[in-house]
Amino acid sequence: MKKSDLPPQVLPEYERLQSRAGGKIQDAICRGSLPRVSTRYRSEFETIAPIPCVDCGQQAQTYDHRDYLAPLAVEPVCDSCNYRRGMAADTFTNHSEYWTRLGFAGFPETEAHSDG
Ligand SMILES: [Zn+2]
Of 24, 57, 59, 79, which has the fewest beta carbons less than 10 angstroms from its beta carbon? Predict the structure, then answer.
């Protein structure tokens, strides 16, 4: 499932959760409870933690969410692995009642059984 596959009535809430989750990670980095891994947006005095991408072992560049409703559950990944992982589909598969409550019953379609 890609973000562009989301129905228009779901996309704004998904993006709101995505933005909120990203903010929580930034807060955690600022508080020092998560190391900064990205070489982007840093001051020249900041150090970047040598943290490997959990998928390929290269320097991580970002924290990947699988579930934006679990905003602090992230894994460090490099950009290419982050892209390959795609959207945070667990935001839907782990929280069908959340989406049902918002009136998004029966969606989105996911390959729920593809990874066992
Ligand atoms: Zn990687």
Answer: 57
Collapse the DSSP code of 13 into the 3-class scheme (helix H, G, I; strand E, B; otherwise coil) and give the result. Answer: helix
- Does 107 reside within a domain? no
Count of structural domains within the chain? 1
Q: Which domain holds residue 38?
A: 10-101
pLDDT tens column, 26-78: 999 889 899 888 766 566 666 777 899 999 999 999 999 999 999 999 999 99
Cα–Cα distances (Å) from 9 to 6, 25, 75, 103, in that order, read: 8, 26, 28, 9
Instruction: Check: pTM over 0.90? Answer yes or no.
Output: no
Between the CA of 110 and the centroid of ligand 1 the distance, in Å, is 24
What is the CA(49)–ligand 1 centre distance, in A?
Answer: 15
